[in-house]
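Record type: monomer structure entry
Structure origin: computed from sequence
Chain ID: A
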Amino acid sequence: MRVRSISTAMLAGVLAAPFGGCGGEPGLTASFDYEMPARFVVPALRAPEDQSEYEAYVEGRLQPETWRVRLDACRSTGSPVRYTWRIDDEEVAVQTRCDGFEYDFPAEGEYSVSLVVEDRSGERMEQTQVIEVRDLLIFGLGDSYGSGEGSPDVDEREPGGAQWQNRECHRSSRSGQVRAAQMIEEADPHTSVTFVHLACSGGRIYRALLGPYDGIEPDGTPAAPQIDRVAELAGDHEIDALFVSIGGNDINFATVVEACVLGTDCHLGSPAIDSLLESTASLICPWSGSYEEDCKAYLDPDTIDLDLLDARAIFEVGSKDEYVDGVDVRRDGLDDLPSNYDALGAAIVGTLGMDPARVFLTEIPDVTRDEFGELCAWPTELLGYQETLRIAAQQVPGITEPEMEWASTYVLTELRAAMWASANKHGWQFVDSVDTRFAGHGYCSDVAWLIRLQNTFSFQGDANGALHPNPGGYGAYAESIFEAFVAAQ
C-alpha cells in the first residue's frame, strides 16, 4: 500500500506507451517515474552524556538546503540513445542511460518535469508530468507508550547492559512511533520522511508536552516542553503529522497499577498492604536475574506508604498531597484529564499553527485478559507448586480478579472514553485499532505483548518497563498508526 495515489503518473505512462513498431514491437515512447531517496535512518547509540534532547531519524541535516529526487526513464520503449531532461522548461541534463539521473530541487513543491527520448534515427518522443517534491515531517510526542519504555535498544542481558537512544526519557528505536514512521517511509517512493522523536517516559500533558520535564531518569537538566521543541525544530516547515501518546500518566495509571500490586482491595477506598506480598516476592523475583534484590525491594511491605494504595482516589482525583487550598496543582486524575486535553489542543493550534486533523492520538489497549478473554488474576491464597509457578510466570503480581475487573471495566474504559471524546472535540485522529490488535495478547496470555514485572528488571534493570509493550506490542502500535495515517491522506 502506498501513502499517496500515483494514478496520474500511472495514467501518463499508459498513454505514452502505444504499440506500433515493426513486427508488433513497441515503438519509441517517453515514460518516466521518480522517487525521493529514503531519509529514514536509526541514529547510532551514544553514551548518556552525549545524548541529545531529541533524536532525528534522518540521513543528513534535519532541514536540508535542497531536496534530491531520482528520475528514472527506463519505462520508455523502443531503443532510445539520448534522454533529455527539462525542469520547468529549462534543460538540466542530457543522459545516455535511462537510470541514475538525480536532481537537487531547491524546495518542496510541484515542478513540471519533461523527458525527451531520441533514438538513432533521430525520432523523438516527449512526456511531461507534474511531480511533487515532498518530505513528510513527523514528530513523535508524549509519554512512555510513545517513547518505547520497556523495550530498550539493547537490553540488560547483553554486554554493556541496557542502552537507550535517550536514557533520561527511555526513548528507543523499537517504539511504535518510530516504526510507524519507517513504515510510511517505505510505503511510498514518491515521498521521504523526516521523523523526530521527543516522547519521554513518565510524561504528562502539563509536565512534558506543555511544561519542562526532568525525565524518568533525571540528569539534572529538564527537557524543554515538547510542543515548544516541535515549534523550534519545524521552523517554517509544514508539520505533516504529530504522533501523540498521552493521558495515561495524567490519570496516574502506573501509580494505580502499583497500588493494586502492593495493596489489597485497592479499588474499594480502604486498601491495606497485601498480606501475601512477601510470598509474592519470593515467587517472581528469582525470575529477575541479577536484579532479584531490586525486585524484592520494590515489593517490600516495610517501605510502602498506605496513602499510595488508594487506587480509586489516585485515578479519579489524584494524590492527596497534590492539593493546595483545594486546587489540584498537578492537574492529574480523571477529573482534570478533559481540561488537560483542551490545553494541549489550544497549544497545537496556537503554538504550532497546524491542522488538528494531522494529530494522531493513540489509545491505550485493555491488556487485562488472556487469549481466551478471561481476566488475568493473582490468587488470594497459595496454590500447588506447579500452578504457583505458572501463575508467577504469567499473572500481574498481587492484582486479584476483582481489582483486575475494576481496571478493565472502569479505569481503562473511562480513560479511552476521555481520549476519544477529546480527540473528537479537537479534530484529532483517534488511533483506536490498537485495542483490537492487542486482543489475545494481554499480560497473562501465552503470547503476551507486554513486559511483565519480573522481566523489566532483567531487561532494563528497573521496574519502569512493567506493563509496557514488548517489540511485538510496539509493532501492533506501529501498524495502527500507519493505517490511520494512510487513511487520513
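Annotation 1: The chain has two domains: 7-35+63-132, 135-488.
Annotation 2: Residues 401-426 form the longest helix (26 residues).
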